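TICKET: design request
STATUS: open
ATTACHED STRUCTURE:
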């Protein structure tokens, strides 16, 4: 009977409202902290496909260093000013989420916060992709037998993509039909191109028919929003990237 009476008690109702506001305030503070951390420090992403095999598999969880400074802060796209290097695994925002309207970005951040980065209101557009950086602005690149050769602006000769990477990695190379024309994106060959001052080239480690700069074309460094530093799940594959 006492519990029934508390529903009509002004003090009890006031206490309940206070508790609700307290919970909402705590969630809001946690969301603000989360937004700051993921925007400027670290974020967790789940690999959703096998385009980065054999190094990464679907279901792997990676920690990324986040960096999304406004474009007016750093207009110089030289190699020294970029926050990633050749061979780094990065998060590419093809959908240009940073250009979405602010209310939508706030809602998307809240959805990601409440779902531990598993759901995004922009996910239907498929804008986030995990790829490997092959070439930076000013590089001259070509591909033969699925292996890229890169001539950096300071060198008079080209090197393989592996020689320019700080850490070793392996590729998945598909067996393609001999009837494929070499001009096709997934034929294994690519004519030499020279990247402009605001262009990067990113690809999948699975060099079969997976979309990357071979189909998208070159991308702006501003579309690379984070760099992978650690795989923490599954535990058996824990690795510094």
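STATUS: resolved
RESOLUTION: sequence designed for all positions
ATTACHED SEQUENCE:
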């Amino acid at each position: 009977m006492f519990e029934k009476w508390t529903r009509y008690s002004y003090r009890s109702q006031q206490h309940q409202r206070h508790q609700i506001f307290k919970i909402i305030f705590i969630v809001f503070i946690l969301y603000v902290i989360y937004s700051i951390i993921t925007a400027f420090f670290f974020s967790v992403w789940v690999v959703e496909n096998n385009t980065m095999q054999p190094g990464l598999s679907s279901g792997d969880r990676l920690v990324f260093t986040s960096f999304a400074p406004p474009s007016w802060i750093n207009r110089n796209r030289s190699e020294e000013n970029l926050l990633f290097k050749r061979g780094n695994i990065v998060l590419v925002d093809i959908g240009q989420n940073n250009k979405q309207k602010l209310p939508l970005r706030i809602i998307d951040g809240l959805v990601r916060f409440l779902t531990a980065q598993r759901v995004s209101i922009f996910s239907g557009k498929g804008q986030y992709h995990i790829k490997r950086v092959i070439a930076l602005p000013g590089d001259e690149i070509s591909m033969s037998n699925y292996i890229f050769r890169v001539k950096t602006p300071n060198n008079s000769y080209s090197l393989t993509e592996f020689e320019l990477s700080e850490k070793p990695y392996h590729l998945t190379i598909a067996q393609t039909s001999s009837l494929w024309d070499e001009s096709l994106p997934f034929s294994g060959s690519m004519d030499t191109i020279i990247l402009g001052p605001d262009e990067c080239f990113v690809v999948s480690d699975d060099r079969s028919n997976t979309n990357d700069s071979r189909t998208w074309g070159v991308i702006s460094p501003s579309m690379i929003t984070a760099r992978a530093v650690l795989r923490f799940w599954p535990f058996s594959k824990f690795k510094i990237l």
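CLOSING REMARK: The domain at 45-97+126-240 is CATH 2.10.109.10 (Umud Fragment, subunit A). The chain is about 20% helix and 25% strand.
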